[in-house]
Design a protein that fits this description.
There is one protein chain. Strands 1-2-3-4-5 form a five-stranded antiparallel β-sheet. A five-stranded mixed β-sheet has the order 13-12-14-15-16, with helices on both faces. A four-stranded antiparallel β-sheet has the order 6-9-10-11, covered by helices on one side. It contains 27 helices and 16 strands. The chain folds into five domains: 87 residues, DNA Primase, Chain A (Alpha-Beta Complex), CATH 3.90.580.10; 136 residues, DNA primase, catalytic core, N-terminal domain (DNA primase DNAg catalytic core, N-terminal domain); 128 residues, Dna Topoisomerase Vi A Subunit, Chain: A, domain 2; 64 residues; 135 residues, DNAb Helicase, Chain A. The protein is 54% helix and 11% strand. The chain is of the alpha+beta class and 588 residues long.
């Protein structure tokens, strides 16, 4: 079942009610091209449109990059959703009610919905405070930081007054229980009993997820008192290491530019964004996590990390940047001049200078090597050893054997150390992950599809009438490619049940990207032949498959006979010879 806990018939019902042309035209300008529609592909840059959408078959395919699928797949790729999210989104659009999965997941969902509602109320409360008489000082602070009223509205900025129970009293008026306020991380228990607001006399930065739901808050003092920032604790809807500030606003620009800049703080995001640098996010002041790297990977594989130039921060950053390499993300690094963070740099030097800095970002190898050289005497033996050790930890994370080899060679030249010595040392770094590199094993590739089997599937996709003709003479097991065998089995089953064989439904049953792509491509590139000619082609393919299968069985038996002869196993030899003679008599 493609949807895990979602029944297949529900998925089919959703697909039958959603028009893929209408869905995709909500994101892309589609132009009619015969029976189909055409657009520039949203998944890669191209000058000539090669992205096709079929209203008849309810699928899409790009002849440039090969991206293809049904409505679920498009939403997953374009909106960077997981499958369950895409199902929920299209079910809502189609008016299909999804079954309750489990009681416990339902209760968790219920709590989450309540927390989203409370956070939304709190964000509105803080925004109203900012625009009231009590928010005058906060408004003045924001103006001094270059944030005008329009920007404050865009980022939903607010102000928490100095009152101890201002938010509590507001939420009580909305019939929100104290226990829920506490679960949302908005209030704190007093030692003497009762509660008080978590945030007081601070600028409020609502943290919004990719679906534009408020999930938490950051709060900054108006002066230089410490702590400068306090943030929401982790809740049922907010995990600090799984979210990125501003991604909901940046995602479209990231898709267009195919790279994203990562800064650290709220203002480091807001200032460049308001000046026109749209494709960036903030890491909420934490070391980057694996979850955040994977979140970024949904949108682009090109990341530029912008750091303040303080030595402690630089060394700490090195430990988190290797995560990008493990996720096969191209990461580059900008280190701003001493005393500057992105907010201050843009306000003093201008957005053009900031963009130039990002453009000139160093690759991770050069960035890390530069930092290690400043911390260790790189001309001394001990210093070289420490630098080599630190660099090899990073080089070992590259999954591409060519890149590893090239960076080992570069490190050898930079440190004037023999390449053989570095290769010996890198083997000590997590040898399990590097074993394949040193054995120089070829990368595993999907098996090539038998051309005869491929043509048969193509013919069945084009002419439903041929499926029954082929089903009478072949079994799914007659297809040597397990992936095609699975597709054919589904097609035969649908025909047997009297159901239509629709590509959009077939794709739903498959986790195999190559076969899904082939199915979609076949629809847009049909055989220019009559039904009679296609029947002849199908008969020829069936004959060829049977001949190939018989030939394979004879060859297999021949090898087993030779083995039995070598072992002197007369009984087994006699049985195999009889079987072989029977095969010889078969004519196809």
């Amino acid at each position: 079942m493609a949807g895990g806990l979602i029944p297949e018939n529900i998925l089919e019902d959703i697909l039958s009610r959603v028009d893929i042309v209408e869905l995709i035209s909500g994101f892309l300008p589609l132009k009619r091209a015969g029976r189909n529609f055409k657009a520039s592909c949203p998944f890669h840059h191209e000058k000539t449109p090669s992205f096709m959408v079929s209203g008849d078959r309810q699928i899409y395919h790009c002849f440039g990059c090969g991206e293809s699928g049904n409505a679920f797949k498009f939403l997953m790729r374009f909106e960077r959703m997981e499958f369950p999210e895409a199902v929920q989104s299209l079910a809502k659009k189609a008016g299909v009610t999804l079954p309750e999965i489990r009681k416990e997941s339902s209760s968790i969902s219920s709590l989450s919905e309540q927390l989203y509602k409370i956070n939304e109320l709190a964000a509105n409360f803080y925004a109203a405070n900012l625009n009231s008489a009590s928010g005058q000082q906060a408004r003045k602070y924001l103006v001094n930081r270059g944030i005008n009223e329009e920007a404050a509205k865009l980022f939903r900025l607010g102000f928490a007054c100095a009152e101890w129970e201002g938010l509590i009293n507001f939420l009580r008026g909305k019939n929100i229980a104290l226990t829920l306020m506490e679960k949302a991380g908005l209030i704190l228990a007093k030692e003497a009993g009762g509660y008080h607001d978590r945030f007081r006399n601070r600028i409020i930065f609502p943290i919004v997820d990719i679906k534009s739901r408020v999930i938490g808050f950051g709060a900054r003092v108006l002066d230089e008192n410490l702590p400068k920032y306090i943030n929401s604790p982790e809740t049922a809807v907010y995990t600090k290491g799984r979210n990125l500030y501003g991604l909901n606003l940046a995602k479209d620009s990231v898709r267009e530019e195919d790279f994203i800049a990562v800064v650290e703080g709220y203002l480091d995001f807001i200032t460049p964004y308001t000046k026109g640098f749209k494709n960036l996010v903030a890491s909420l002041g934490t070391a980057l996590t694996l979850e955040q790297a994977r979140l970024l990977k949904r949108y682009t594989r090109n990341v530029v990390v912008v750091y303040d130039a303080d030595a402690a921060g630089e060394m700490a950053s090195l430990r988190s940047l290797d995560i990008f390499l493990e996720e096969e993300i191209d990461v580059r690094v900008v280190s701003l001049p001493t005393g500057f963070d992105p907010d201050g740099f843009v306000r003093e030097k201008g957005i053009a200078a900031f963009k130039e800095k990002v453009k000139q970002a160093n690759g991770l190898f050069d960035y890390k090597l530069g930092i290690l050289k400043t911390h260790h005497a790189h001309k001394g033996i001990e210093g070289k050893a420490k630098i080599a050790c630190g660099m090899l930890e990073t080089v070992s994370k590259f999954k591409n054997a060519v890149l590893k080899s090239e960076y080992v060679r570069r490190l050898s030249m930079e440190l004037d150390i023999r390449e053989e010595a570095l290769l010996a040392e890198i083997k000590k770094v997590k040898p399990d992950t590097n074993a394949a590199y040193f054995r120089e094993l070829p990368a595993e590739r999907p098996a090539q599809i038998n051309p005869t089997e491929k043509l048969l599937l193509k013919l069945m996709l084009e002419e439903t009438a041929l499926i029954e003709r082929i089903r009478e003479r072949l079994e799914p097991a007659d297809f040597s490619d397990a992936r095609l065998s699975k597709v054919v089995s589904i097609m035969f089953e649908l025909v047997e049940q009297g159901k239509a064989v629709e590509p959009r439904i077939l794709i739903n049953h498959l986790g195999e990207e190559e076969i899904s792509r082939f199915i979609c491509e076949s629809i847009f590139l049909p055989q220019e032949a009559s039904l009679q000619e296609k029947e002849k082609m199908a008969d020829d393919c069936i004959q060829r498959l049977k001949n190939e299968k018989l030939k394979f069985r004879r060859s297999e038996l021949h090898n087993r006979i030779k083995t039995a002869q070598g072992l002197g196993n007369e009984e087994e030899l006699s049985r195999l010879m009889r079987e072989f003679n029977e095969l010889i008599k078969i004519k196809v």
